[in-house]
Amino acid sequence: MECEYFEKLNNQEFGDLIGETKYWLIILAPDQRNLGTCVVALKREEIELSALNPDEWADLYNTVQKLENAVKKAFKATMFNWACLMNSSYLQDPPTPFLHWHFIPRYKSSFVFQGKTFEDPCFGRSTMQDRGRSFKVSEELKNKIKMEIIKYLEI
Amino acid sequence: MECEYFEKLNNQEFGDLIGETKYWLIILAPDQRNLGTCVVALKREEIELSALNPDEWADLYNTVQKLENAVKKAFKATMFNWACLMNSSYLQDPPTPFLHWHFIPRYKSSFVFQGKTFEDPCFGRSTMQDRGRSFKVSEELKNKIKMEIIKYLEI
Q1: pLDDT in tens, A81-124
Q2: Shortest CA distance from B66: residue in chain A
Q3: For burial by CB atoms within 10 Å, which of A6, A146, A155, B97 has the most?
């Protein structure tokens, strides 16, 4: 799967591209503490949410629905956190213009995928309170996570 | 300003109602560490973002634009964090169905309003890393913050 704009995002280390809609890229994040964590990035340069155009906003709705649905089916996620922060973008002047959303699936119960148990010890609280814990997955497992989401993504 | 549904939200302690669009309430949050921090709450019960209908989603776009614009004009905010988390909602079974967004203005420079200096020491990072700091404002100052946002809200 390729997307010309995705190449531009390389330095952002958002992760591995798993799909795209008309205006958004769906990218599997490197940190899989919360199984299925993704970044949803706009396919053009922009710095703030209120500058999206109506078509991009409508397509974001489409993307939210498809991704929530896919990760529910793939990993039985209980619910999802969505956040457009752009904090680190503003440490540069002018700001880094890669508008993106953090999509973090949350799990009331642990979930076993490919023999590995994924937990969400901060369920009911912010994952920001859980910064000490890391969960590196192998390339092989990462690819299986990607394929499992793609299976249900319907885009 | 009154809204029947806002009464239902009383136990959520979202704050003081400052305006409403067709489908969303704009509420000034009690914590004004980041000047202009609001909650944007859906005017009906719902637990997840993907269950919004297209009209509610389109009206959220309208709300994002009006609120960002107003807080930029009122307090010269640099940028904004938006997050739909719903974490604590899921500590109850069934979840508390008050779908809402956290709207946190971020400031590269301090801003003086009504003689009080508001800082954002975590600019460029998450406000979650700043949990120790609190910023209680008086009722009088809170009302002035509300009026300043309302002045530019254009709804």
Answers
A1: 999 998 989 988 899 899 999 999 999 999 999 999 999 999 99
A2: A50
A3: A146
Q: Between A and B, how many residue pairs show a Cβ–Cβ distance under 8 A?
A: 96
Distance from CA of B86 to the nearest CA of A (A): 7
pLDDT per residue as tens digits for the range B4-55: 788 888 778 889 999 999 999 999 999 999 999 999 999 999 999 999 999 9
Q: Is the peptide bond before B94 cis (omega within 30 degrees of 0)?
A: yes
Interface confidence (ipTM) of the complex: 0.94
Q: How far is CA A119 from CA A78, A111, A139, in A?
A: 12, 7, 20
Q: Do A128 and B124 touch (CB under 8 A)?
A: no
- Closest-CA distance, B108 to chain A, in angstroms, reads 8
Q: What distance lies between CA B41 and its chain's CA centroid?
A: 8
Backbone angles phi, psi at B59, to 5 degrees: -70, -25
- Bridge partners (DSSP) of residue A40 are A26, A101
Q: Is the pLDDT of residue A135 over 90?
A: no
Distance CA B86, CA A136 (A): 26
Cα B70–chain centre separation: 12
Question: Tokens 């710095």 map to which residue?
Answer: A47
Cβ-defined contact of A90 to B106 (cutoff 8 Å): yes
Residue of B nearest to A64 (CA): B50
Q: Which of B59, B43, B85 is nearest to A105 (CA)?
A: B85
- Determine the straight-line distance between the first and last CA of chain A, rounded to whole angstroms: 13
Query: Token digits for A151?
Result: 């299976």
Q: Is A132 part of the contact surface with chain B (CB cutoff 8 Å)? A: no
